[in-house]
Amino acid sequence: MSRSTRVNVTGLGVGAAFGFLIQAAGFGDADFIHRMLLLQNWYPWEVFAAAIAVGGVAFWLLERRRWVTPLGGQLKLNRTSIKPRHFYGGMLFGSGWAFSTTCPVPAIAMVASGGVLGLVVKSGLFTGIMFGDRVAGGHHHARLLPPAA
Amino acid sequence: MIGAVAAAVLKGGPQFHLGYEFIYGWMPLWGAVGVLFASGLAMGYGARWAGGCTSGHGLCGMSIRSAGSFAAALTFFATAVAISLALNWATGNRT
């Protein structure tokens, strides 16, 4: 099996596990996230906190031990400094999240559980990402390019 | 999608329904479709602009202690909670 096939198979497995856990935790229900954002249900916040804590300890240990991943070589964590786009993009994303009461991965879980209107949210998401690629992404990449000789 | 369907099957589904039952009390279906598409659009563009979403910045970015991810995640958490509470207040607890 080639390396790229192994990467794809691993990605499929990890993605399936992630989708399973998101659905099992209840994130496929818009009302579940709605009550989370109204601070009426603290369970989703606890799931978030637990996931970050587990991931944080695991990444800290793996980075400290200079772990070499089986398929990607030396583990290199891509940290970013704070930039204005984090605030502007974050506010826009948060606005959409409040009105749709779902976010990109739970929207897939919603569709998978039979929630038809989740498809509408996914359509908007893909359109927004494509539009963002042309505008925000284009500008971002342009800044990374070396100056013309 | 595969994992989410598997979990839905284990929970006795999938069962086809529109979802968003809490919206119908104060908004017609065509209005909900417009709002949901527009909010998806905002999320997609916002995620591209910020460089990540709840999973990318919220879970992965905060796990690796990335300052940019903390800024983005705290911003969208605060914005979403503030707008949700404001909408709930403005609609008389109907949303």
Layout of secondary structure:
The complex is a heterodimer of chains A (149) and B (95).
Chain A: H1 3-25, H2 30-37, H3 43-64, E1 68-69, E2 73-74, H4 84-100, H5 104-112, H6 117-144
Antiparallel strand pairs in A: 1-2
Chain B: H1 2-10, H2 29-50, H3 54-63, H4 67-90
Amount of helix of chain B: 55-70%
Q: Helical content of chain A, roughly?
A: over 70%
Tally of individual helices of chain A? 6
Oligomeric state = heterodimer
What is Rg of chain A? 18 Å
How far apart, in Å, are the first and last alpha carbons of chain B?
Answer: 28 Å
Q: Please give the count of helices of chain B.
A: 4
Sheet with the most strands, sense and barrel status of chain B: none
Strand content of chain B: under 5%
What fraction strand of chain A?
under 5%
Question: How would you sum up this structure in a few lines?
Answer:
The complex is a heterodimer of chains A (149) and B (95). Chain A is an all-alpha fold and 149 residues long. Chain A is built from six helices and two strands; from the N terminus they run H-H-H-E-E-H-H-H.
Protein architecture, described:
The complex is a heterodimer of chains A (149) and B (95). Chain A has helices spanning 3-25, 30-37, 43-64, 84-100, 104-112, 117-144, and strands spanning 68-69, 73-74. With 149 residues, chain A is mainly alpha-helical. Chain A has a two-stranded antiparallel sheet. In chain A, α1 packs across α5. The longest helix of chain A has 28 residues, at 117-144. Chain A is globular and about 40 Å long. Chain A starts with a helix and ends in a 5-residue tail after the last helix. Chain B is an all-alpha fold and 95 residues long. Chain B is 68% helix and 0% strand. In chain B, α3 (54-63) crosses α4. Chain B starts with a helix and ends in a 5-residue tail after the last helix. The interface between A and B is large, with 83 and 74 residues.
